[in-house]
Amino acid sequence: MKGEIAEKLQSKIKNLPQEPGVYKYLNEEGVIIYVGKAKKLKNRVSSYFVKQHDASRKTRKLVSEIRDIETVVVDSELDALLLENNLIKEFQPKYNILLKDDKTYPYICITKERFPRVFSTRNIEAGKHEYYGPYASLRTMNTLLDLFKRLYKIRSCTYNLSRKNVDEGKFKICLEYHIHNCLGPCEGKQTEEEYEEDIKQIRSILKGKIGLAKGYLKDKMNTAAAEMEFEKAAQYKDKLDHLQNFQAKSLVTNPNIEEVEAYSIKSSESMSYVNFMKITDGVLHHTETVQVKKSMDESDEQVLLYAIFDFRKKYNTASRKVLTNIELEEVEELPFEAHVPKIGDMRRLIELSMKNVFHFMKEKEVLKQEKEDKKAHFQTLLQLKADLNLKELPVHIECFDNSNFQGTNPVAACVVFKDGKPSKKDYRHFHIKTVVGPDDFASMYEVVTRRYKRLLAESEPLPQLIIIDGGKGQLGMAVKALRDLEIYGTIPVIGIAKRLEEIYFPGDSLPLHIHKKSRSLALIQRLRDEAHRFGITFHRNRRSANSIHSELENIEGVGPATIKKLLTEFKSAANVKKASQTDIAAVIGNKKAETVVKYFKEKE
């Protein structure tokens, strides 16, 4: 740090008070790059500029960019924590922790109008209506809205139901009234007092106070029953059942736990993961897990405190009791009682919160790995493009391999890789139809012709590279097939010889030798090996099927229809051989069963 700048900063630090507050570090452009809180401002800020050789690399980098310091003195360490949280949210300094949350979650809105409406929204108009949420789980929100529809008759129209408009008869009841989803406040068929009572119950449920709504419905049911209004009593009982059913499904812990918030944290080197759960009357009211990017080697306690205040502000919660999986000792006076439960229902809540954290971490790690794999595959394809001097990036590659055993059961395989990964749904087997005997060259001509003739007929996309498992002879037959289809020259085609891993190009007698440790050669080898594996598996299955058939076909007097019945029932000739004459007779009759059993006995 230059002498003039260091002198200026040291002068500022010298005059800082030993009081709680927030400090802001600014860079050369006057942009806030870091916000921190302190119990004693002078001690905390000066600590950044002494013993720099002991500081972490990130801290040294931060200090090297500081050109000015601004501070705000507050009354307590708690006030400093709250102000720090707000400033980080407002300015998002690059060296501060950052909650990775780019989602806009929906809220449930209760409008501030006569006969309020209840609906979900992502657009918040502060001060205009009441909002409950946000709901990280759409399923939870929709379950609540469905519950309200079952319990209460809330209007869905957007009419302005002022007294004047209703008295003047400006509106007419609609279909919702006739199907009993609304009680017709637009025509004055429902009083404002009755409607507001329903809205009051909805508010209590949204705040997690299900007990209030249950008590109200129970009182109404008992009153109606006492007054001999049994139909009305049955309606209230039905609503009460719906509410109790909802509570039973939503219950995660003891219903006697009135209101509590649970937080858990798990960290890696550069990232922390925090879960939040709000429980009221034993019901999980809100839950969300976020990713927090650490910038300055913050402790778990620092990150968790930051996340707690962020969640409380976001969800508008103010529970007195907070459960955590780590001790919170950094701030002396918190606006809640925080403790780490060791046993009982509270401990089970923290364990549930931690399960959510671990699941979220695993999900993020899988996504990260997929991104890294995709990047690695892309780099490999770039290398392959350069090594083979291709015009296009080979995102779609196909590889062919022939397979036969002593000239029997000739088959071929085509495997397909997309974006550097196997696309197994696109793999294809081929029975060789036009070639007699073990002729690999003619077989290659047939399968390449059949493959691309079909793709052309079905207007399917062609690959950016074709690989032939074999040397110059098989490559030449593949080229001939492409020429006959009039697509040679539009698709690059190469052959790979097994012994020396030489790459052959059409018309070039000298092979290309790609470096043995090259990622592009590894990809070509993987395609070749996968085509070989796929073809060999198919070939073995076919040989096995044929050997089973020939064994049963050797039995005189047993025809194809009988063989089919036996194989359908016993699955293999070996199982037929093991079966008793009675079991075989149950499938093909006594006479033929006797013939089959006699055949296997004589063979033994």
TrEMBL record:
Residues 18-97 form the GIY-YIG domain. Residues 217-246 form the UVR domain. It comes from the Bacteria. PROSITE patterns: GIY_YIG, UVR, UVRC. Its main location: cytoplasm. One of its GO terms (cellular component) is excinuclease repair complex. Pfam families: GIY-YIG, HHH_5, UVR, UvrC_RNaseH, UvrC_RNaseH_dom. NCBIfam families: uvrC (TIGR00194). This is UvrABC system protein C.
